[in-house]
Amino acid sequence: MLISVEQLHAAMQQQEDIVVLDARFRLGKPEAGLEMYQKGHIPGAVYIDLEKELSKPAARPGGRHPLPEIDDLVACFAEKGIHQDCLIVVYDDNQGMAARAWWLLTYLGHQHVFLLDGGIGAWLRAGYPLRQGEEQKTRQTFTAMPMQGWTVDYEEVASLAEAGNGLFQLLDARDAVRFRGESEPIDAVAGHIPTAKNLPWTHFLHSDGTWKSPQEAKEIVASLQLSEDTPVIAYCGSGVTACSLIFALRRAGLRQIRLYPGSWSDYISHYNALIATGEKDENKYILP
Question: Could you tell me which residue ranges the Rhodanese domain spans (predicted)?
Fold first, then answer.
């Protein structure tokens, strides 16, 4: 799941069959990621765009970053040089974007997908070089074998919010201020889905952007009274950084994890959605 910059550099020196994906992106500045890639990227890496390639266009309902159609994803990954047996390493600049590609590739059945620990910052700190411009890989054949039961839709989440039946624990990957509804810089409504617990994905990172150990991740999860057997549903603003939370939860040993792809931006697009604010659902109201 996780590879160090030293391990990646060694594998590249040995000319192993590796595809490196640069997934840097800035919400609200859709061209910024490609520009950063062009100015300097890990040698051999190809750029993959969150909104053009890892999402369908925003929709109501659907959210800001709906999952692409499987055929479109397969064509995209094949164009990046990906096949079933290659090693894939995805990186960003610790903004939570790389895990979206990691999750999608894993969801489609690829068995050798890794995140680069510490991202491009760790690569630079290790003294390794960057390359400018754009690169391409030879198109390959990629066969998707989508996993079943890895996602949930609005109806399933809404039933949990209303009934609180305890079958799944909703986990909100956004920061605490957005979760409590004190501020909402992106979406039209502030707050969270009732019964959700707040577990920001950034809690699993060290200050230098490297991931905390599996043991540290387990301790964070245990602080919310969650265990390896707890079924959870992860969401965020639009289904992107929720993938980073899923990555962290997998490292903590949880296996019953589902993604709500539309996340908050889809949830609030539905008439009569139940909204909560505060740390522990102190206030609830129905969206008009």
Answer: 14-132, 164-276
